[in-house]
Amino acid sequence: VQMLMLTKSVLAMMIGFLLSTLTGLILIPLLRRLKVSQRISIYVKESHAKKAGTPTMGGLIFIIPTLVTTLILFLLGKMEFSTNLVIVVFVMLAYAIVGFIDDYLIIKRKSNLGLTEVQKLFGQIIIAIVFFYLYMKSGASTLFWIDALGIKVDIGWLYGVMVLFFLVGFSN
Predict the structure, then answer these.
(1) How far, in Å, CA of 79 to CA of 97, rounded?
(2) Is the per-residue pLDDT at 125 higher than 90?
């Protein structure tokens, strides 16, 4: 059973990699044509200036294939509609929206100034709080469990703090 699960996980990663690569091959030239590119401050080092003209909104390369794959697996009956699926898709799309707004402001202002650090952090914290609320509403456990060490501790609301640090930390 574990080998089957490992095989499915590796297959899912390979499909995700291939779809992201194909999406990138299509999306990068399209973003260049639309002039959706990175703006670089005139005050940065010359080595950083190479980023000028690099297409922005690159997160779409990962978000589109993930949503398409999820939808296909759901329609084929290989994936069940569940609260966990809704929560994961919500978090991915919510963080994508924060990134989109940041990139959109950079393009619209024709500068490298998108959202401020405080605005991004505020959005990320709100998303993490909503995630934890939805997670708790689903009846999920707040058990901190390290099986290898035999540690099982119900940490209650501290689980939410841990989730907040993980989500905000990994998104940055």
Answers:
(1) 25
(2) yes
